[in-house]
Amino acid sequence: MKKIAIMTAGGDCPGLNAAIKAVVMSAHNKDVQVLGVLDGYKGFVEGWYKELTPKDVENIELLGGTILGSSNKECPFYYLVDKTNMKYVDKTDEAIANIKKQGVEGLIVVGGDGTLNSAKVISERGLPTVGIPKTIDNDMAASNPTIGFDTAVGNVVDAINKVRSTADSHRRVIVVEIMGRTSGYLTLYGGFAGCADIILLPEQDYDLDGVCEKVKEVASRRRSVIVAVAEAAKELGKAETVAKMINDSFEKKRYGGIAEKLADQIEAKTGIECRYVALGHVQRGGTPNHNDIITASMLGSYAYELLTMGEYGYIVGVDGEELKKMEFPKDEINARLLDLNTHPLVKTAKAVGVYFGE
Ligand code: F6P
Predict the structure, then answer these.
(1) Cβ distance 349 to 340 under 8 Å?
(2) Which tens digits make up the pLDDT trace of 142-194?
(3) CA triple 134-202-344, angle to 5 deg
(4) From the CA of 281, how far away is ligand 1's center (Å)?
(5) Considering its fold, how many domains does the chain have in total?
(6) Domain coverage including residue 63
(7) Which of 51, 157, 181, 303 has a CA 20 to 30 Å removed from the CA of 244?
C-alpha cells in the first residue's frame, strides 16, 4: 500500500492521539502516506480529509481528545440527509469511492462497538479496514483494556477522593454517577479504587431498601458514605434513567439522572443529608496516562502492520502484554458486560465489605 487513511470515531477518550501518531510514524518509516479523516464518519461521508505528516503528530500523544475530531452520531450506512423528514441513506459506497479517489488503499478506524460495526461494513464493501478498540466503557471483547479506560478510572478515583473530603466535613452521603452505558467496568474499577462503600452496576438491579440499610450502617461508624452508581444502573423493578434521546444519533439513548434520583431517595429514607455529583465528560477528558499512551501506541503500530501486510478485516487488541487480533464478528458487535458471579474484582470488593445492592 502506498497510502492509507486513519479515522477516530465515536465518543472521544484519552489515548486516541497516541494511536494516530503510531500509525502515521509507522507509515512514514515505510514511505507510506497517511490521510486523516476529520470528524469521524461525518468527515468520511462528506470527504473531509487532511494529509498527516510527522510534524503534525509531534508529541500529540500527550494531548487528550483527538486531533482529527470525532462524532458519535453518524453512521455511513444510515446517514441522515434530511433532518426535517428524518430521511436516512446508505452512503457507504459513495464514501469509499471518494476516499479511493484520494489514492487511499486501506483504512484504520479507532472506535467503540458502534463505530467498529460501521468499520466492518466498510471492510466488507471493499475498502480494506482494521479496527482499533477505544472506549472509557471498556466494553469490547476484542481488547481488555480498551484505549481510554485506564485514564478514565484514574479520573473517577480523583473525583471520588475530592468528593469524600467534603462529604467527611459535612457528615454527608454523596452519590457519584459514573459513565459506561450498559457496562459496569468503569463504575466497578473507579468505585472500588475510590473506596466507595456501595457500588451499583447496570448488570444487577439494586434493592433500594438494601442500599439505605447499608448507608445507615456505614454512617453509624464513619462521617461520610460514598455511593458509586453507574449511569445505566436501576432499581429492581424500575426502568433505567435516560437523560435524553438524540434522534439523529445511531445509538439514540444517553443515560443520566440516576444519581440525583437516588440521592433524594436515600435522604428521604434514611434522614441523612445526601448530595450527588454526575462526573460526566470530565471522566473522558484530559491528558492520557502512561498506560493509555503505551496501549494506544502499540495498537496503532500493530494495526498499521496488519493492514499493510494484507491482513485486514480484523480488530486488534491487548490482553495484558500480548497483542491479539480478532476477525470482525459475523453479527453486530455488542457491548461486553460484567459477569458479577465470576469477576475477581467483584469477589474482592465483596470480601472487603463493598455492597452491590443485591
Ligand atoms: O461510550 C462512551 C460514553 O462516554 C459513555 O460512557 C456515555 O454514556 C456516552 O459516551 C456519552 O455520550 P455523549 O458524549 O454523546 O454525551
Answers:
(1) no
(2) 999 999 999 999 999 999 999 999 999 999 999 999 999 999 999 999 999 99
(3) 75
(4) 8
(5) 2
(6) 3-147+288-327
(7) 157
2 alpha carbon – ligand 1 mean position (Å): 35
What single-letter amino acid sits at 320? G
Residue 358 belongs to a domain? no
- Taking the centre of ligand 1 as the mean of its atom positions, its distance from the CA of residue 140, in whole angstroms, is 15
Q: What is the 3-state secondary structure (H, E, C) of 180-246?
A: CCCCCHHHHHHHHHCCCCEEECCCCCECHHHHHHHHHHHHCCCCCEEEEEECCCCECCCCCCEEEEC
The set of catalytic residues is: 137
- CATH code, domain carrying 21: 3.40.50.450
Q: Pocket around ligand 1: residues whose beta carbon is below 6 Å from it?
A: 11, 72, 112, 135-137, 179-181, 231, 254-255, 284
Between 194 and 248, the more confident residue is: 194
Pick the closest to residue 133 from 328, 283, 321 (CA basis).
Answer: 328
Cβ pair 20, 296 in contact under 8 A: no
3-class secondary structure, 277: strand
